[in-house]
Model the fold of this input.
Amino acid sequence: IRVISDLSLTLDGAGPHVLAVDREGADAAHWVYTLAADEHDSPTAVLSRHRTVEHGAVQERFVARVYAGSLDGVLIRLAVGADFANLLELRAGRPSAGPVPMSSDATTLSAHATDIGVEIRTRGDAGKVVDRTIEWRLGLSAGESSTLEVEIRPSAVLDRPASGFDPTSPAPPETLSVESGSDRWTRSVASS
Done:
């Protein structure tokens, strides 16, 4: 099951300019984006994005740094979508059913289906949840930095028994018998 279908980043409404990308093994990656540049197109402010996968959760850590000049009111948005699509269906070229409804409060986005859910939570004071996005407005001077941490944690809904299953009823006794004059064993389950 695909849990997150969208995790896209925009800087003041536009796609970011990528300076570098580095994979750190199978469970981590690092991106560096330009936030501002001087007249020679040299970055004066950058956004570093570090993603790790550990203990069943995705950790995203964003650090904005200003080396020269200042950033005033730059809006960073992280759009989040969940569709719980079947990966085999997607690989076969079938479209997903679309995004599932998400609920939110000031620091958390969450979505739940019948047997799976996901929570996207911000940590610290940097970001706030607005609709299906995490917004982070920067106001930094030269030498300053700001950090936003986001955790994405899927969850299985295990508190409901499978349909038609009654965990309070005992399993019916199983008996083995031999038909008279035969060497066939017959397995039967006593009915209640």
In short: Helices lie at 87-91. The first strand starts at residue 2 and ends at 11. The chain has a mean pLDDT of 83. The longest helix spans residues 87-91.
